[in-house]
Write the structure tokens for this entry.
Amino acid sequence: MVYQKLLTDAGFGEKKLALLIDPDKQAKDQLIQLANNAHQANVDYILVGGSLLHRDTFHETVRCVKQETDIPVLLFPGSAWQISTEADALLFLSLISGRNADLLIGQQVQAAPLLHETSLEVISTGYMLVDGGAPTTASYISQTAPLPANKPEIATATGLAGKYLGMQLLYLDAGSGAKNPVPHEMIKAVRHKVGLPLIVGGGIRTSEQALQTARAGADVVVIGTVIEQTPALLPSITQAVHSALHYAG
Ligand code: 1GP
């Protein structure tokens, strides 16, 4: 089970790297190459999904990644139709930083009966968008205001509310291609106070940023855009995240 493993690894302070694959962004041969690179770099998870997809390649992307690697594929759905039974688990996201009812509970109601018919592992995830210095596709499409980056106490209150609502996991996201990643102070505060396993992503471009994100308390660090631009960075960023183990709190 993906969640059990995630929980155990987080308990031991083992830091993990997730590569976000946007189904829109690459041709099939590039995708095969990327999946193989991820395997060689010891990437721990592959996330597939996005808040705005332009092409009908979602299912094909999941299938292709599953064929090429044994890295667990976690769905990171932008809407109810981004469900593939070929994935290992689905992050059942509720956008708890926002006040858009459709993304808090509407899409989830549409997806639930479909999920019930599958054996897909469903992981209840409190999803929080954080201001990354400029509007992102996620903030625009979701029509929500992100959490202010300099207000860790709002992030903590939101994360705690998610925990009390029964969520199993939190995801702090500055949004794909964000100018600034999620501040370390916020990561620290949320991880320490809420105590749920924590995924952090958005705007991470260097090994140093990935390392500091993991050291601040992220259990899983997500990178996407930087690898689309510079695939050769994947091994060093993955290694940096894995090396943060000794700094576990
Ligand atoms: C976005 O957290 C992910 O949802 C990854 O962001 O593409 O900026 O790495 P980047």
Summary: The first helix runs from residue 2 to 11. Residues 133 and 179 are 6 Å apart (CA to CA). The mean pLDDT is 95.
